[in-house]
């Protein structure tokens, strides 16, 4: 099943989904170049961004 949402122009389009991930202090995800090819395939085109300029985030 492929879910759709109504876009600003009234047409149906891809469903946008977002998540907020709160990590413990000093916790960092692995740098992307340290992730195995198998795990990269599972991750697909997910993206991550930090909410504060001084905080590091790795994937």
Automatic annotation (TrEMBL):
<dbReference type="GO" id="GO:0015979">
    <property type="term" value="P:photosynthesis"/>
</dbReference>
<keyword id="KW-0934">Plastid</keyword>
<keyword id="KW-0793">Thylakoid</keyword>
<dbReference type="GO" id="GO:0009535">
    <property type="term" value="C:chloroplast thylakoid membrane"/>
</dbReference>
<dbReference type="GO" id="GO:0005506">
    <property type="term" value="F:iron ion binding"/>
</dbReference>
<keyword id="KW-0812">Transmembrane</keyword>
<keyword id="KW-1133">Transmembrane helix</keyword>
<keyword id="KW-0472">Membrane</keyword>
<dbReference type="Pfam" id="PF16639">
    <property type="entry name" value="Apocytochr_F_N"/>
</dbReference>
<dbReference type="GO" id="GO:0009055">
    <property type="term" value="F:electron transfer activity"/>
</dbReference>
<dbReference type="InterPro" id="IPR002325">
    <property type="entry name" value="Cyt_f"/>
</dbReference>
<keyword id="KW-0602">Photosynthesis</keyword>
<feature type="domain" description="Cytochrome f large">
    <location>
        <begin position="2"/>
        <end position="51"/>
    </location>
</feature>
<dbReference type="GO" id="GO:0020037">
    <property type="term" value="F:heme binding"/>
</dbReference>
<dbReference type="InterPro" id="IPR036826">
    <property type="entry name" value="Cyt_f_lg_dom_sf"/>
</dbReference>
<dbReference type="InterPro" id="IPR024094">
    <property type="entry name" value="Cyt_f_lg_dom"/>
</dbReference>
<protein>
    <recommendedName>
        <fullName>Cytochrome f large domain-containing protein</fullName>
    </recommendedName>
</protein>
